[in-house]
């Protein structure tokens, strides 16, 4: 008698079982104890905004922030028009307004310092908050003043974020120096940018060393907050001494390499005439925008 042939379903299961390989589990990535501090938010893109001179971008951003700051109280339409202009520039720079908006939320907590205006600005009362000891009266003019300050600061920080996204930090510092800003201020900013990450790494290593020397076995009570505060105070003092010693060594190394109080450049960058003309036209347009916001643009 002939041997019975297996059915198709059995052959398919056998083929799948033969070619099946167990999936290898990827090892979980351990969380880094200390991330490197990166202050440079430059996003490389191929756009005319990125190729523009850093001096032009810096002056335009300063003029734009000054224009937004001088807008009258309650000029929400003018603030919205200024934000639409920023959004158009961000699209031209191939960054997008979403990233620009996310980068500006860091300034919102500082804008809440104007919250007392809601209760201290005289105007038509909208409601009263009873706090047992005293009462707070909310005024419509106070809400308008607070909203104006909040939106102005938010739009201004977005303009600064757009400058940082489209300009490398060392190019920006070079542009500031060529704009005849105080050399000492530019040098301080440059050194702070270069060595803040070094100090952060030093503090991270000290925290790691403290954690390795202060391990608590399971079942034992962790040390109290007084001990932790004393250890943190000692760490801050040690970090200050290390930073001071390192700054002395760095300064001596810079002097041995010809440092004379300012950064030297091997090439000269004259301000391009087309961009100088563009700067003049943009400043005149911002002045006209400011004048129209004070005259015929409706306010709240």
Distance between the termini: 99 Å
Number of strands: 2
List the helices and strands in order. Answer: HHHHHHHEEHHHHH
Content of β-strand: under 5%
Side-by-side strand order of the widest sheet: 1-2
Counting helices, strands and paired strands, the structural category is: mainly alpha
Mean pLDDT: 82
Global morphology: flat
Blueprint of the fold:
Elements: H1 8-19, H2 48-51, H3 54-69, H4 76-92, H5 97-102, H6 108-111, H7 117-120, E1 125-130, E2 135-139, H8 140-166, H9 169-178, H10 183-213, H11 225-256, H12 273-295
Antiparallel strand pairs: 1-2
Mind explaining what this structure looks like?
- With 300 residues, the chain is mainly alpha-helical.
- Helices cover 62% and strands 4% of the residues.
- It is built from twelve helices and two strands, in the order αααααααββααααα.
- It has helices at residues 8-19, 48-51, 54-69, 76-92, 97-102, 108-111, 117-120, 140-166, 169-178, 183-213, 225-256, 273-295, and strands spanning 125-130, 135-139.
- A two-stranded antiparallel sheet has the order 1-2.
- Strand 1 and strand 2 form a beta hairpin.
- Helix 3 runs parallel beside helix 12 (273-295).
- The protein is flat and about 65 Å long.
- The termini are far apart.
């Amino acid at each position: 008698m002939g041997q019975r042939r297996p059915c198709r379903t059995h052959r398919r299961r056998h083929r799948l079982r033969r070619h099946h390989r167990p999936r290898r589990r990827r090892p979980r990535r351990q969380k880094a104890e200390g991330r490197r501090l990166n202050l440079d938010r430059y996003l490389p893109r191929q756009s005319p905004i990125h190729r523009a001179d850093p001096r032009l971008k810096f002056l335009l951003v300063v003029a734009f922030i000054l224009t937004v700051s001088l807008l009258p109280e309650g000029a929400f339409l003018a603030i919205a028009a200024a934000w639409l202009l920023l959004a158009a520039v961000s699209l031209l720079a191939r960054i997008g307004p979403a990233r620009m908006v996310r980068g500006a939320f860091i300034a919102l907590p500082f804008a809440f310092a104007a919250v007392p205006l809601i209760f201290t600005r005289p105007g038509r009362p909208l409601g009263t908050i009873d706090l047992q000891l005293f009462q707070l009266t909310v005024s419509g003019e106070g809400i308008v003043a607070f909203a104006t300050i909040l939106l102005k600061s938010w739009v201004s920080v977005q303009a600064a974020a757009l400058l940082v996204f489209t300009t490398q930090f060392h190019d920006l510092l070079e542009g500031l120096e060529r704009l005849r800003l105080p050399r000492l201020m530019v040098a301080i900013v440059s050194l702070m940018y270069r060595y803040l990450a070094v100090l952060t790494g030093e503090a991270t290593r000290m925290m790691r060393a403290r954690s390795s020397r202060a391990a608590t076995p399971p079942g034992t009570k962790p040390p109290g907050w007084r001990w932790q505060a004393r250890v943190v105070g000692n760490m801050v003092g040690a970090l200050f001494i290390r930073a001071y010693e390192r700054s002395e060594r760095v300064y001596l190394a810079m002097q041995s390499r010809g440092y004379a109080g300012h950064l030297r450049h091997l090439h000269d960058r004259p301000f391009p005439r087309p961009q100088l003309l563009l700067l003049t036209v943009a400043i005149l347009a911002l002045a006209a925008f400011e004048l129209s916001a004070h005259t015929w643009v409706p306010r709240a």
